[in-house]
Design a protein that fits this description.
- This protein folds into 2 domains: about 230 residues, Metal-dependent hydrolases (TIM Barrel, Alpha-Beta Barrel); about 60 residues, no CATH class.
- Helices cover about 30% and strands about 15% of the residues.
- The strands form 4 sheets. Strands 1, 2, 3, 4, 5, 6, 7, 10, 11 and 14 form a 10-stranded mixed sheet that branches. The chain has a two-stranded parallel sheet with strand order 8-9. A two-stranded antiparallel ribbon has the order 12-13.
- The longest helix has 14 residues.
- About 50% of the residues are buried.
Length: about 400
């Protein structure tokens, strides 16, 4: 069976997360998105584990079910050098025991615990409990593994189970790094709210024997990920090197010359695009035979927002979104499978936008410095498209 899964989300206990990130909200919103399996997030937080137990029915082999939505226990841990690690956990007892073992001052107050463990120490600890572990959003400049290491083995000491690409990278970018040829790639949303443009904005299609922890583990370890779905990477908010205050995109060499300081007084953050170019072994991606297709998507509500020039949570945008979902069942089906002429009957302005996105006949103004990129429909998108870059002449 083919299952759409998003393993990396956060609960209401994580900093900067919505108070609505509760099982009762996450379950129905995930179904409308088109997901069948969702990570719980924050599974080292004792209070969140209590809520999971109260809000779900245990279906066996690590799966907790609510409102016809299946959950597997997952968490993100911040380790040494502020590197984030994603962990998939076999069951509630294991989650509670590891939570008690984890040395962290904030594990009872924040869903994402901060620790001083290295990647190698975390790997050794969770592997004793049959967990899966890998770097979260591996290339991002604040908390990605590659911000501190040139090799994944320098971080973990041995091979972790997967690499999560993050919103600002895709398979084409990651497969220019030769050491990643043996790793499965995960694409997850890192959602902090249950809004449909957050949950499932990136997800994985896995071939599973059944929905169980054992099948998830087998699928990740035995190359049963059949597709990765995610944003165009230049829509990600750390894709290009840019100022974190004014969001001006800056030439990386010039940024280094100016000690990563912008003329506005802000800090310049190295972009994922440039960081990958620093560690890349190839100019073009070399995909291993097992690497699945990467399908570029954009959250439907954000697409509607771009067309109507209205906020993504406004009544206008959400009303159109709901009509499309009512007609075609799930957001994923609207974006990928629904016939364009049928979509046009619901909204004639949205159908050409969805068709343009499917055909890659859109233009992207890249994101950077913490600001997401955005789209227009005036000209075709270019792969890893560069924006106007500030240099010595126009800084």
């Amino acid at each position: 069976m083919l299952v759409n899964a998003d393993f990396h989300v956060h609960s209401c206990f994580s900093s900067a997360s919505s108070k609505d990130m509760l099982i009762k909200n996450m379950a129905p919103k995930s179904k409308l998105k088109g997901l069948e399996l969702l990570g719980t997030g924050d599974a080292f937080h004792p209070g969140w584990l209590d809520i999971i137990e109260e809000s779900t029915t245990y279906s066996g082999d690590g799966i907790y079910t609510a409102e016809d939505m299946d959950f597997v226990l997952t968490t993100e841990v911040e380790g040494k050098n502020r590197i984030h690690h994603l962990i998939i956990i076999p069951d509630m007892g294991t989650a509670r025991e590891l939570s008690q073992m984890l040395v962290s001052k904030n594990k009872n107050t924040d869903g994402r615990p901060r620790t001083r463990y290295t990647g190698a120490e975390l790997l050794e600890m969770v592997k004793e409990y049959d967990c899966l572990i890998g770097p979260a959003h591996a290339f991002t400049p604040w908390t990605g593994m590659y911000k501190s290491y040139d090799s994944i083995y320098d971080c973990y000491g041995k091979k972790p189970d997967f690499v999560e690409l993050g919103l600002s990278a895709d398979t084409d970018m990651a497969d220019t790094v030769s050491e990643l040829k043996d790793f499965p790639f995960l694409t997850n949303s890192d959602a902090h709210s249950p809004w449909p443009h957050r949950l499932g904005r990136e997800f994985n299609a896995l071939e599973l024997k059944d929905i169980s922890y054992s099948s998830i583990k087998y699928a990740i370890k035995h190359r049963k990920i059949k597709a990765n779905y995610g944003l165009l990477p230049n829509l990600g908010k750390y894709h290009m090197t840019a100022c974190t205050k004014c969001y001006k995109i800056i030439d990386p060499a010039f940024a280094r010359e100016n000690k990563m300081k912008c003329s506005c007084g802000g800090v310049i953050k190295k972009g994922v695009d440039f960081r990958i170019s620093e560690i890349a072994d190839y100019d073009e991606p070399r995909h291993p035979d097992f690497r699945p297709e990467y399908v570029h998507l954009m959250p439907l509500a954000e697409l509607i927002s771009s067309v109507y020039d209205k906020g993504v949570t406004t009544k206008t945008v959400q009303g159109i979104w709901q009509r499309l979902i009512d007609s075609f069942g799930t957001e994923i089906n609207v974006l990928i499978g629904a016939p364009i002429d049928e979509i046009s009957k619901i909204d004639s302005k949205i159908s050409p936008a969805i068709e343009a996105f499917r055909n890659r006949t859109i233009d992207v103004v890249p994101g950077g410095g913490g600001k997401y990129g955005h789209v227009s429909f005036d000209k075709p998108v270019e792969k890893r498209k560069a924006a106007k870059i500030t240099t010595l002449d126009n800084f």
